[in-house]
Design goal:
With 223 residues, the protein is α/β, with parallel strands linked by helices. Helix content is 23%, strand content 16%. A six-stranded mixed beta sheet has the order 3-2-1-4-5-6.
């Protein structure tokens, strides 16, 4: 999204985005990485520092085109058997689009490690399953650089033992957030950057059946 040179554009709504997927791009071919869950929490920017009561939430499970890996199923609790009754990503994307356009613009999508995972995956899925949906009107921000700025030289996040409530965070957090790069969704790489190292040998747990290439398992028989 273009803006006049030297003029900062005030974001009115922050939408925190988290995606679950069939697997990680460094463990499987990128084309096999599909979204299995979309979670969005939107908050007006001016209310972010106050008790977070005014929230807009959307969480949808998605039927992927490919099989969920065993590791992903164990982490997320979602597998092809559970997801076979869920809408496709194309159907889900229409709901997400309508949800976003109910919010006050300008809108910024915020995701932790979003530049390397969430944003490229979102754009790739939109291009494949919902090419008619255009999210370039929204900004994108990766929250990871802001937290690295706050934590400084802390090599291990587990070393940080004190967790502050939102209202207790000092101005350094907000300065780091303001300094974070905000780019148009159209500038995101449409492909996940990591190359596959090894294709997983295990898929969705056998106890719940397998679904390869987006074909759901047969329905359970009544006993």
């Amino acid at each position: 999204m273009d803006k006049p040179p030297g003029q900062r554009r005030q974001i009115e709504t922050l939408v925190f985005l988290d995606l679950e997927s069939t697997g990680l791009p460094d463990l499987m071919p990128r084309r096999k990485v599909n979204v299995t869950e979309v979670a969005l929490i939107a908050v007006p920017r001016k209310l972010l520092r106050t008790p977070l009561r005014c929230l807009h939430k959307l969480s949808l499970c998605v039927q992927p085109r490919n099989a969920v890996t065993l590791d992903a199923a164990n982490i997320t609790g979602l597998d092809n058997w559970d997801l076979q009754w869920c809408p496709s990503f194309g159907e889900t994307a229409q709901v997400v689009e309508k949800f976003l356009y109910t919010l006050q613009p300008p809108i910024c999508l915020v995701a932790h490690n979003g530049d390397k995972f969430d944003f490229p995956l979102l754009r790739a899925e939109l291009k494949h399953s919902a090419p008619g949906i255009d999210l370039t009107a929204f900004f994108c921000c990766d929250s990871l650089p802001a937290f690295r700025e706050i934590l400084g030289d802390a090599a291990d996040p587990q070393e940080v033992t004190e967790v502050l409530a939102l209202g207790e965070i000092d101005n350094e957090f907000w300065e780091a957030f303001e300094a974070a790069d905000i780019t148009s969704a159209s500038d995101s790489d449409e492909q996940l950057p990591s190359q596959p190292v090894e294709r997983p040998t295990h898929q969705t747990p056998q106890t719940k059946g397998l679904a390869y290439d987006g074909i759901p398992p047969p329905p359970k028989k009544e006993t």
